[in-house]
Design goal:
3 domains
Amino acid sequence: MNPELDCAQLLTQLSREQSTGCLEIIYGSTRWQLFLRFGQLLTADYSIQSLDRLAHHLRQLGYSAAADAVTVEPDKKSRLAPDHGVRQEIEDLALQGLLDREQLQNISVQLTKEAVEPLLWLTAGEVEWHPNKLISIASMSNISANLKTSGLIDYYRQRLIIWQKFTNIVESPHQRPYLTNERFLDKAVPHGTLSPKALSQISQLMKGLSLRNLALFLKQDELKLVKLLTPYIRHNVICLREPSAPFNELPTIPEPPLEAINLSGELTIIDRDLSRASGDTKVYQIACIDDSPMILDEMERFLGNKAKYKISKFEEPIKASGMIFRLKPDLILMDITMPNINGYKLCSLFRNSEVLAETPIVMVTGNRGLIDKARAKLVGATDYLTKPFTEEGLLTIVDKYLNS
């Protein structure tokens, strides 16, 4: 039996010690190799890699010429690449002039991302540390992801919280969705947002693809895809097959601990751009309070695609108050006109607490009059934002208080 393992803790320790070398982790028949230099993650490989997956990633990034040049034998698309074979293929594409330096780094980030996420789901495995052992590829400096380890771990901890929202429906991103019956294409599904035409088009693409491959094909974040398909899975319009080999040997999404459940019951999707989440940028918690789901969704749409912001949405202001005291957000966006308690009273309540006394509070209102601004200032509001707001306007005011 494999010993217990906490990969996040292990990587954090190596990062703090500014270690250089190769961390090798074995779980069943799957092996990961993570190459670090002075605690920074240069790249990560795992044994479940194939050239067709490389081609998928290249197309998803828009590098069609490079994707077409990947040397995949038609009858061996599922063949796993040998150690570093995928990266050797990338180097060959660069030598052919099909990938420039920036593109090399982008594809390296995608491959590292694909390898690291399931690794951090492991709870057991064999570990070996090879000091000073680095990958022997001449252009390593060009195709390295070179990610900040602590930022990478924080990013995937957030993604795991979101994955865990769906664990009663999805066990693995490698499960394969399929339409149970074509007559269900016209079936009305509660909370379903796909038209029959769109559902039909997606069902045609599903055949044989995993959730992860389908997301790549659609150029969509897989978490957003799962959220989109969830109503149809709940009502048996779409079913999920087990992952095909060898992906069935990877760890499944771990069950969430009780303390990891978001107090608001709402979880936002994190930006796909791993490079932004893995730098020095702090991830800020933003609480959005509004009795209009449409306004909350608009805030989430404008802010939730930025890796540095984590959004919690609250529709009921009275219930939100107790949760926000525990959440301790970095910024509060709050509507003025709400049922049971208006924004002025709620703002005053927050300001009179020690926890939120210094937290920036932006009042959101449809009234442009001076009375609203004066009253908002009187109760301790930091600023105000008028509706309807644009993405640029919302980001400007948020950046003003979180990035100044």
